[in-house]
Design brief:
- By secondary structure, the chain is mainly alpha-helical.
- The protein has one domain: Rhomboid-like (Rhomboid-like fold, Up-down Bundle).
- Helices cover 70% and strands 5% of the residues.
- The protein has a two-stranded antiparallel sheet with strand order 1-2.
- Helix 5 runs antiparallel to helix 6.
- It starts with a helix and ends with a helix.
Length: 203
């Protein structure tokens, strides 16, 4: 499942690198969705990326965390785990840009690409599923407990989105993460209690 998503995303993204017209047709553009009825853009933007680095980072994180989430979904929900993982990923793609749609639906020049929102949903689902885990960042040689990382990431994304001084889709990161948390808790409410218990160990 994870390798299939990675392979399709890489294939479409690489094609779009060399075909600006394809990129233009697939990227998220709230104006085109509203005024030209191109609702498919809510989904297709996640399969094109802004460059090799953007694609590589998203796919590496998806591969790393997606295997964990997919495996635990199968363990917890049996064959329904396949459906739930697709709901997590595809729902993360669409939910993460709803805020940007509302804000930019009359801005013809706003575009966005990349699977970051869906990847954030997967990462935060893994935090709820396995709160005992930890996250390593490239520039910090220490393991950060997953619950702490999750809280810091949400605060950082909300702060950077409010500042709006770079071209990174912090809103999509934030709302994708929220979606991943909510969906996983809805599917297995007892996980939230375990997450809170793990969180209290650090305070």
């Amino acid at each position: 499942m994870i390798l299939t998503i990675v392979a399709i995303t890489c294939l479409v993204s690489i094609m779009a690198f060399y075909n600006p017209e394809l990129l233009g047709k697939l990227q998220f553009n709230a104006y085109a969705i509203k005024h030209r009825k191109q609702g498919y853009r809510f989904f297709t933007y996640a399969f094109v990326h802004g460059g090799w680095g953007h694609l590589a980072i998203n796919m590496f994180v998806l591969w790393s965390f997606g295997r964990i989430v997919y495996g635990l979904y199968l363990y917890l929900f049996g064959n329904l785990g396949i459906l739930y993982f697709l709901l997590l990923y595809i729902g993360g793609i669409m939910f993460s840009v709803l805020f940007d749609f509302g804000r930019h639906k009359d801005n013809e020049w706003y575009n966005a690409v990349g699977a970051s929102g869906a990847v954030s949903a997967v990462v935060f689902a893994s935090i709820i599923l396995y709160p005992q885990g930890g996250v390593y960042l490239f520039f910090i040689p220490l393991e950060i407990p997953s619950p702490i990382f999750g809280i810091l990431y949400l605060v950082y994304s909300a702060y950077m989105a409010k500042r709006g001084r770079d071209n990174i889709g912090h809103d999509a990161h934030f709302w994708g993460a929220i979606y991943g948390v909510i969906l996983t808790i809805v599917l297995k409410p007892s996980l939230f209690i375990r997450f809170l218990e793990e969180l209290t160990n650090y305070f």
